[in-house]
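Reopening this ticket.

The earlier resolution said the output was attached, but the attachment link was broken on my side. Pasting everything inline this time so it's all in one place.
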Amino acid sequence: MAKEAKKATEELELAAAEAQAAEVATATESSAEAAPEAAEQTAEEKATAKAGKRSAKALAEAEQQAAKEERKAQKAEADAEAAEKPKQHANPTRSRLERSGKNFRKAAELIDKDTKYTVAQAVELATKTNPVKFDASVELHINLNVDPRHADQNIRDNLVLPAGTGKKVRVAVFDDTAVEGADISGVDKILAELEKNVITFDILVATPAQMPKLGKYARVLGPRGLMPNPKSGTVTTDVARAVAEAKAGRVEYRVDTTGIVHVAIGKVSFGAQKLEENARALLASVKGNKPASVKGTYVKAIHMATTMGPSITIDISEL
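Inline output:
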């Protein structure tokens, strides 16, 4: 019995030793498996700093910025593709002719837009294509190859139209000398009206001696185109002649900022013959004022139209 008890005790001790050995082996394996994970975690901690460009916040912001740039690139690519595709408007804008009145469209049918007419043909058409009931003006629009910013190319002149303008003009003479045909005359009388900002005339003629008195009213007369000027023939010593020419139908023309001359050459009621005379007189005057500095083509285009009528293209060889 003592031998059996001793043997049982030895077996128990052996089993305990084997169990302890197994626990040690398991702990060793766990330590070996955890070592790489700890090493990886340590590497990550080293790669991510607490502050600066390598901090977690900075890295997150960098990722957001990269995503934003990618979205921008995608949007730009989409916009480029959309721009290449032709846009189709659901309700396309109608042309000027389609938006015009019935009378205008009917008058425009008489004009061939691809044809360049002579002056005689143009005035004949102008008298037929007036779409309004009143006696409309007939206008010439001459597009010149000039640059008004240069003094020598700032075309400006005046002339008396052979058949007149068809307008009744009120002529004032800024001088104390009585002039036949003048509607208003007298220095004091005109100054009194200007003081009240009252304008009762269409043309103001003055002598050189009286011009200094008008300097005070340049801001009143200038914007209205009423300031006397030697180039327009309204500052002269021969006041009687200036008044007679103004009443007879003198017109002044000057290129606008785009180099175009706009002049009314009469009324529809004048008839084709008188309108042609006035048109040719104006074209001759413009041609005679060609600046020496302009080389090559001087006139780019000529058009004629009534006040509210369609445009008629005139052949530039008519100049």
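Reporter confirms the inline version is readable. The chain has nine helices and nine strands. The chain has a mean pLDDT of 82.
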